[in-house]
Amino acid sequence: MTGLFFVLSICRHWFFGWYVYVNEREEFNKHIEVTDYATQMMRDTLENWQSEFLQLIWQVGGFSFLLYIGSLQSKEGDERKEAKLDLILKQINPDEAEELIKNLDLKYPRK
After folding, report:
1. The pLDDT value given to residue 37
2. Which of 85, 93, 102, 111 makes the best surface tag, with the fewest CB within 10 Å?
3. Rounded to two decimals, what is the model's pTM?
4. For residue 73, what pLDDT band results from cuts at 50, 70 and 90?
5. Structural domain boundaries enclosing 91
6. Does residue 11 sit in the same domain as residue 55?
7. Same structural domain, 92 and 60
8. CA–CA separation, 92 vs 96, rounded Å?
9. Are residues 86 and 101 in contact, defined by beta-carbon separation less than 8 angstroms?
10. Number of domains making up the chain
11. Which pLDDT tens digit goes with each residue over 43-58?
C-alpha cells in the first residue's frame, strides 16, 4: 500500500511539474525540452528527499542519543513508576505489600 501511495505521489509531482514547466517556458518564449524538464524535476525531487531524510535522521538519531545518554525524560520513567506502584500496593494491601513487592523484585529485577 505504501508503494502505491509513493508511485501515485511521484507521478502527480512530475505531472503537475510538467504543467508548471510548460507555463514558465511559454511565458519567456523558450523552447520546451524534455531533457531540461527531466533535469529540473530530478533536482527538485532529490532536493526534497534529501531535506526529508536529513530531518528524519536527525530526529531519530537525536532521540536515540538522548535516550542512550539517559536524559531526564528517559530516566524519569521506570523508577518513578515503580515507586508509585509500590505506594499503591502498600495503600491497597498494607499487610501483604512488602511480600508482594519482594516477589515481584525477584521475578522482575529492578534496573
Report:
1. 95
2. 111
3. 0.51
4. low
5. 72-107
6. yes
7. no
8. 9
9. yes
10. 2
11. 999 999 898 888 999 8
